Amino acid sequence: MRAPLIDRFGRRHTYLRISVTDRCNLRCTYCMPEEGIALASHFDLLTFEEISRVLQIFAEMGINKVRLTGGEPLLRKGLPNLISSISQTSGIDKVGLTTNGILLTDYAEPLRNAGLKSVNISLDTLNQDRFLQITRVGRIEKVLEGIEAAIAGAFSPIKINMVVMKDFNDDEISDFIEYFFEKPVHLRFIEFMPFRSNGWNRQKLIPAAAIRQIIGERFSFMPAGSEEPDQVARPYQIEGMKGSIGIISSMTEEFCESCSRLRLSATGGVKTCLFGPEDGNVRNLLRDGATDVEIETFIRQCLDRKPSGHQSFNEGEFLVESPMVAIGG
Fold first, then answer.
1. How far is CA 45 from CA 10, 41, 217, in A?
2. Coil vs helix vs strand at 19
3. For 104-114, how does the pLDDT look when each residue is reduced to its tens digit (9 = 90+)?
4. How far apart are the C-alpha atoms of 101 and 144, rounded to whole Å?
5. Taking the chain (329 residues) in consecutive chunks of 10 residues, what is each chunk's mean pLDDT?
6. Contact in structure between 148 and 36 (CB atoms under 8 Å)
7. N or C: which end of the chain has fewer CB within 10 A?
8. Is 281 helix (H, G, I), strand (E, B) or coil?
9. Farthest-apart Cα atoms in the chain, separation
10. pTM as predicted
């Protein structure tokens, strides 16, 4: 074992989010600019072998949870093979996936067989017209079918992620709870986050306090404990609900002091804070014959640049330069 990944503020890092592609079959307004992005070439993407090698080094430094993201990760050919490799990596206890659900009906069984444990599914509305306004393409039925496939596949946990936007879908918060009340899923209501390409402004933000108020108008709920120490959603339980609800308050009730996650982009970028710049790129090291020790040193140098937290919402507006689809959801 190598020394654990502890930053200069004493935070221990155990969670790595790995983007496997910057391509997506939807065009969600909060994730991708209307004109799209300049897609990485196949050569620029990390190979599965490169991902597996760098993950092994991360695991030896204490990373025990991995989540695969995109773009839409199910567009990456052979993804079950990568999941199988990750799930067999010594030290990795949990392997999850974030998806828009469009392809999940076809992939749920091979993903489960490969060792995938949990899925997060993005769904921001139950209305087809609004779905098209957000995603610009696609049909909501495919996502709902994907959720049912995840339930049938006994993934656990299954989380439904809803980005809440004022005067757009905030009127559906309680509808979501009612729709999923009897299903074994966990709803996560997420504050709208500030990327330069998604038209963010304060007026579109529904703060966590307002989300709680909206929920409280129709349901009685109370704080709930979490079995996940790196959970960023504040969990709540509604009496009789099969799953739970949670609120991710990145903007108004930040949780930076307990952050335990790092990000690896599809092209090898290491990012220690979602709202910060890329801290370095490991791809050239991997391809130039660097030793494991040299890669470990590089990762620790990136971690040394991690800030204590992102700029406070109350200190003025700040916008992340890269669109979310390029970073990894």
1. 32, 7, 47
2. strand
3. 999 999 999 99
4. 8
5. 95 97 88 77 97 98 97 97 98 97 97 97 97 92 98 97 95 98 97 74 89 96 77 91 95 90 96 90 97 98 93 56 67
6. no
7. N
8. strand
9. 59
10. 0.93
Tokens representing 193 are 């986050």
CA distance 91 to 106: 29
Q: Tell me how far CA of residue 39 lies from CA of 122, 144, 266, 267, in angstroms.
A: 22, 28, 11, 11
Query: Under a CB-based contact definition with an 8 Å cutoff, are residues 72 and 25 in contact?
Result: yes
pLDDT at 202: 78
Other beta carbons within 10 angstroms of residue 305's beta carbon come to: 15
H or E segment at 147? helix 140-152
CATH topology of domain 15-327: TIM Barrel (3.20.20)
CA distance 77 to 21: 10
3-state secondary structure 225-238: CCCCCCCCCEEEEE
The distance from CA 188 to its chain's CA centroid, rounded to whole angstroms, is: 11
Tokens of 56: 């092994």
Tell me the residue length of the chain.
Answer: 329
Domain boundaries, the chain: 15-327
Q: Is there a contact between 261 and 229 (Cβ–Cβ < 8 Å)?
A: no
Between CA 46 and CA 217 the distance in angstroms is 48
The 10s digit of each residue's pLDDT in 170-192 is: 999 999 999 999 999 999 999 98
CA dist., res. 77 & res. 161, Å (int): 24
